[in-house]
Amino acid sequence: MFCVVLTGVYMGNLTAALTDTKYHKPFNSLEELVQLPDWKWGIRGYSLAKKILRNSKNNIMMKIWKGLQQFNKTDPSIFDTDINVHVNRILTEGEKYVYFGFGAESQILNRNDCALQIVDSILSNFQTAIAVTKNSYLKPDLESTMAKLSDTGFLTMLDETIYKDNRPQHCKKRDTKRPLRVEDVLGAVSSASVGLATAIFVLIIEKCQQYYKLSLHQFNEYNFSIKR
């Protein structure tokens, strides 16, 4: 009974996992992206993201910048300043293209579809600020202004406006189902094996008890016949 129930439940979950249509990402990190020979990536020219990539000493970001330089030799639009050019290349059928830049999340949330997706948010870890010279007379005024904007809730309202999710409702649902793995099959086989071994052990005990009762009954009958 244990094996039958477990196998039935597992087969139901397995069928659901195999029939569920899932979109498989071609890559899940920048490390995987740079290994793909048929993919290109671009960035807006004269942007902060370009300066970060150009001056970074991080190994993976150096590879990204090297790729940008290589692509730019035959494709000048790699450094196009218009973000729409990069987005259109992403959405072009058959085009394998990635855009690097700040504000990618706002671009996705303000669309009316689920076509764009963030794969690796490495650039979102960099903070931006308004810089002034040391001991500048503008510093107190800037600090006072930013404090007032924060206290009045303007910065919070601005953030909520920029990052407001305007996508359709089905785009906001996250798929929490993980793909079927070898460990799942091994786990099911192990559980079924344990259940089968338990069932055999219980069966052996029951047979031993039946044999013991039968032997005891025959022994009692034999003693009774001798006494008679």
UniProtKB/TrEMBL annotation:
| Keywords assigned by UniProt, alphabetized | Cell membrane, Glycoprotein, Membrane, Receptor, Transmembrane, Transmembrane helix
Q: Where in the cell is it found?
A: Cell membrane
Name the source's superkingdom.
Eukaryota
Q: Which SUPFAM superfamilies match?
A: Periplasmic binding protein-like II
The keyword Transmembrane helix is assigned to this record: yes
Which spans are transmembrane here? Answer: 185-205
Keyword Ubl conjugation among UniProt keywords: no
Q: Which residue stretches, if any, does this entry annotate as coiled coil?
A: none
> What does the entry list under GO cellular component?
plasma membrane
Q: Which InterPro entries match?
A: Insect_Ionotropic_Sensory_Rcpt
Q: Name the membrane topology term.
A: Multi-pass membrane protein
Chief place of localization: membrane
The protein depicted here goes by the name Uncharacterized protein
Q: Which organism is it from?
A: Patella caerulea (Rayed Mediterranean limpet)
